[in-house]
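Hi V.,

Quick status before I head out on leave. The structure for the redesign project is tokenized and pasted below; the design run finished overnight.
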């Protein structure tokens, strides 16, 4: 809602004559908050009902967190603008403001993300990962209600809510590689809707579009979804883009992490090439194991 309100305000500023209405749609992911995402359909659970409303013409624009989008979108829909990215990193909010390296063995860390969970376990195998669902308020509250020592959340959400003072530690990408598209929002329209395309094209940030595009090409190359521990982060510098990708076993014992650089003009090919490299280095075996139905982090 915060992200959608921001987009609506920017359109109103640009087009004072336009009537912009926010339409609230509760998705399956919003409703089923006591079930792991992998068990109820992965990434698509946060967008299915919204995309159906878009296809029916009930709404004209959809605003998504890019990290919630599966690698493939419906043919009739298109992400037409990705505004400037917020902080892509993860953060720790903890009891007493302790940092991860100060946590005792057996500390209980809450996260609803297997990506975060496997990276934490790989670095600190003595931690206990506690599955976490719900909005930001709910997850932070569980520090008290469930006796957690800390929770890991996306920095972007915390910043957009104005809660930076609650952050105990910003986790560098070297420690915690972000989710593909983390920190970015995407504006989705019907592909043939020229009016809406023109209304929001000013929100496009070219650098963010390229970086997120490389990350999503990497995700697509792995055939990834929310049931798989996958991370990817791209950074443009001049005419070059550097992409780092990761895939891990569901228990966190094996993490394959690689980086690759290439031309900005070939950002999508870079993502596909990095996916192929990681698959060849053992990623394919990990994916096969996950698809056989091995248990997700409990």
């Amino acid at each position: 809602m915060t992200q959608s309100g921001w987009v609506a305000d920017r359109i109103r500023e640009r087009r004072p004559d336009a009537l912009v209405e926010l339409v609230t749609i509760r998705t399956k992911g919003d409703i089923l908050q006591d079930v792991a995402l992998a068990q109820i359909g992965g990434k698509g659970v946060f967008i299915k009902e919204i995309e159906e409303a878009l296809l029916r013409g009930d709404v004209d624009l959809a605003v998504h967190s890019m990290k919630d989008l599966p690698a493939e979108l419906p043919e009739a829909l298109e992400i037409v603008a990705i505004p400037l990215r917020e902080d892509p990193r993860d953060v720790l909010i903890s009891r007493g403001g302790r940092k991860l390296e100060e946590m005792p063995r057996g500390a209980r860390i809450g996260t609803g993300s297997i990506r975060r969970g496997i990276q934490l376990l790989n670095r600190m195998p003595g931690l206990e990962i506690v599955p976490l669902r719900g909005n930001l308020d709910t997850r932070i509250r569980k520090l008290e209600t469930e006796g957690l020592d800390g929770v890991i959340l996306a920095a972007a959400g915390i910043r957009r809510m104005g809660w930076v003072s609650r952050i105990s530690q910003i986790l560098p990408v070297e420690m915690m590689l972000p989710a593909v598209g983390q920190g970015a929002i995407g504006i989705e329209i019907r592909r043939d809707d020229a009016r809406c395309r023109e209304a929001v094209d000013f929100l496009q940030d070219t650098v963010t579009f390229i970086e997120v595009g490389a990350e999503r090409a990497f995700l697509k190359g792995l055939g990834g979804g929310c049931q798989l521990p996958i991370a990817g982060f791209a950074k443009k510098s001049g005419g070059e883009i550097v992409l780092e990708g990761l895939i891990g076993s569901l228990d966190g014992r094996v993490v394959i992490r690689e980086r690759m650089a290439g031309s900005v003009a070939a950002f999508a090919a870079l993502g596909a090439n990095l996916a192929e490299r990681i698959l060849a280095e053992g990623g394919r075996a990990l994916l096969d194991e996950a698809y056989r139905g091995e248990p997700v982090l409990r």
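Above is the designed sequence. Residues 250 and 294 are 8 Å apart (CA to CA).

G. will cover questions while I'm gone.

Best,
W.
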